[in-house]
Design goal:
The chain is of the alpha/beta class. The chain has a domain at 30-97 and 124-232: Rossmann fold, CATH 3.40.50. Helix content is 33%, strand content 15%. Strand 5, helix 7 (203-216) and strand 6 (219-221) form a beta-alpha-beta unit. Helix 4 runs parallel beside helix 8 (223-232) and helix 6 (173-186) runs parallel beside helix 7 (203-216). The chain is globular, with a radius of gyration of 19 Å.
């Protein structure tokens, strides 16, 4: 079995601590999982696969070519989830044209006022990349802070769906993914984090945050395991997905 992606970043002391402390136990999947894709938009991917140092010349938040590798993994997971009728949820950002609501985002980045648009399409940087675009039965939450739960209806939607767990992908691993994982954990939702479906602009931040989340808050799993699990699920777990015909009144009682 291949070593975890974070192993090269750990000291010998770190390895001994994790081995002895009891952290990193496997919690397992839930019974009614929803798939969630965090912020896989043009802002974080750029509008074409290219090395990060090239991409960030236009897209300051770009994670470079690794983002597009993750998009391919996410596409496979989303297709498997749709085939089983699982809820597919996305998050992306939203901002006023005058940037008034940037708030604290403007305090730590000198390029925060930039608003880049993809070349040749009628879209902005918060548009989810077309390779994994939401479908008619999917849900999108629009957010202004790292966690997809903060100031959004995400938790209420998960309760409405009856979901007990999340299979999560997206970006950045150390930022919005981590914040969403912690809020899911705080709401007693099981989280499985698909390694190949997550990405970050910093290789060290990506690896170490996966390590820490796996130790305490989520199971970091491979794409193949996520796909295998989804394929074992029965169809029809979520008959009331968005777009489905709903029973709006009391059910008729046979005479």
């Amino acid at each position: 079995m291949a070593e975890p992606i974070w192993t090269p970043f750990l000291t010998e002391r770190d390895k001994q601590v994790f081995e002895s402390s009891g952290y990193g136990a496997r919690q397992g999947f839930g019974k009614r999982p929803a798939i969630i894709v965090i912020d896989v938009n043009y802002n974080f991917c750029g509008d074409t696969p290219e090395p990060i140092l090239e991409s960030i010349k236009r897209w300051r938040n770009s994670c470079g070519a690794e983002a597009w590798d993750a998009v391919a993994a996410i596409k496979s997971l989303v297709a498997a989830g749709r085939a089983k009728g699982l809820p597919i949820l996305y998050s992306t950002g939203v901002r006023r044209e005058d940037d008034w609501d940037a708030g604290s985002w403007a305090w730590k980045n000198t390029r925060s006022a930039e608003r880049v648009r993809p070349t040749g399409v009628q879209a902005d940087g918060n548009t989810i990349v077309p390779d994994i675009a939401p479908g008619p039965n999917d849900l999108v939450v629009f957010k202004q802070k790292p966690s997809a739960f903060h100031g959004t209806p995400l938790l209420s939607w998960l309760l409405l769906l009856g979901a007990d767990s999340l299979i999560m992908t997206g970006t950045t691993t150390s930022g919005c993914v981590r914040a969403t994982v912690l809020d899911a954990f705080s709401n007693n939702l099981r989280v499985s984090l698909v390694e190949e479906g997550c990405f970050d602009r910093s290789q060290a931040s990506h690896a170490i945050n996966l390590c820490d989340m796996h130790a305490k808050y989520a199971d970091v799993i491979k794409l193949d395991e996520a796909l295998s699990f989804v394929r074992t699920l029965p169809e029809g777990l979520f008959p009331d997905l968005p777009g489905a015909k709903r029973q709006t009144g009391p059910k008729a009682v046979a005479a």
